[in-house]
Amino acid sequence: MNRGLRVLIAGICLALIGAGAWLWATRGRESTDDAQVEAHVTPIAPRVGGLVMAVPVSDNQQVEAGTVLVQIDQRDYQLALDRARAELADAQAAAVAARADVPITATTATGNISTATGRLAASRAAVAEAEQSIEAARARLASAQARVRETEANATKAARDVERLKTLLAKDEIPQQQFDAVVGDADARAAAVESARSQVREADAGIRVAESHAQQAQAGEQEATAELQRAQTAPEQVAAMRARAQAAGARIQQLEVAVKQAELNLEHATVRTLVAGIVSRRSVEPGQVIQPGQPLMTVIPLDRVWITANFKETQLERMRPGQRVEVDVDAYGGRMFNGKIDSIAAATGARFSLLPPENATGNFVKVVQRVPVKIVLDDGQDPERLLRPGMSVTPTVYTR
């Protein structure tokens, strides 16, 4: 065997040994260069609009939770809060008055019923008394009329006696004294007629007076009846006052909500960050008028970054959550970060794309799919916050 052949055989053996060593060294490992750093990107947008008075942060500045990012003009919101508080105070005063009116109305209504009932009873008694007065006046009128007829008859008889005795006196058949007595009796009876007629007129006037009193009593009875009917609406009046008090209470609740909303609007005029992180993509300047929901900047917390590695579906056979991972960051060549698999996505990346592939058209071409795998770093791996979202990395998963 010549020397060249021996060198060839030795080279082949070394190549086989190297390939075996490489296969042994990479056994139980899966790696991909289709991976990048991810982090929560928190968009900052205002909940109220207005004129920007100050922006006390700049791009790439580290901020803590609660730091003021944007200050909006608060004067309009302060005025709205003052107005809401004034309306609430007015409604509270009206509610106190409405609640106080309920027992007052109930007590007054009860007293009105008693008073109206008494007045109605008195009015009815007055009507009955007036009717009795009318009957009595009518009886007196009838008696007076009868008296007139009686006196007129007596006066007529006396006048005839005078005429008859006057003839006898002329013949001296009766004495003058007897004639004078008959004349006097006739005059007395004529006066009695006038007196009886006066009594008739008086009785007739008494009837009119009694009827007038009766009309007044009836009017008083009608007024007392109407007053009693009004007083008997006390339950409805009390219910109305209670409804008014309840409406005043509901109005208070509405205005309390309005005050809270005004307080929130005033508070939201100061835009703060809820998370600590790095300010990025600042797009707002003092003097700018902004609207609710308008993007102003983003805050990225770099203390909670992770890796999204898109492994081929053929690499997932032995991958499980919790397996150890070494991450090589392209930006820091040679520096390794340790972590572990947190979870494996429920679908391939293509399934989440804007236009997922349709494999039922008959033109299907098999393509190896990639599945996102979330990798979290161990605690203390990046104290300097060197990792930035979007950086390219190469993770290696130890499946054994």
Structural account:
With 400 residues, this protein is α+β, with helices and mostly antiparallel strands. 52% of the residues lie in helices and 18% in strands. The protein contains four helices and 15 strands. The strands form three sheets. The protein has a seven-stranded antiparallel beta sheet, with no helix packed on it. Strands 3-10-8-5 form a four-stranded antiparallel beta sheet, with no helix packed on it. A hairpin with a 6-residue loop joins strand 12 and strand 13. The longest helix has 96 residues. The radius of gyration is 60 Å and the shape is rod-shaped.
List keywords for this structure.
alpha+beta, 7-stranded antiparallel β-sheet, single chain, about 400 residues, 4 helices, Helix Hairpins, rod-shaped, Elongation Factor Tu (Ef-tu), domain 3, 4-stranded antiparallel β-sheet
Q: What name does CATH use for the topology of the largest domain? A: Helix Hairpins
Coarse morphology: rod-shaped
CATH class bucket of the largest domain: Mainly Alpha
Structural class: alpha+beta
Gyration radius, to the nearest Å?
Answer: 60 Å
> Which residue ranges are poorly predicted, with pLDDT under 50 across at least 5 consecutive positions?
none
Largest sheet: 7 strands, antiparallel
Mean pLDDT: 81
How many distinct domains? 2
**SSE string, helix = H, strand = E?**
HEEEEEEHHHEEEEEEEEE
The neighbouring-strand order within the major sheet is 1-15-12-13-14-11-2
Distance between the termini: 45 Å
Task: Specify the number of helices.
Answer: 4
Number of strands: 15
Q: Considering the protein shown, what is the CATH homologous superfamily of the largest domain?
A: Helix Hairpins
Helix content: 40-55%
CATH architecture call of the largest domain: Orthogonal Bundle
Strand content: 15-25%
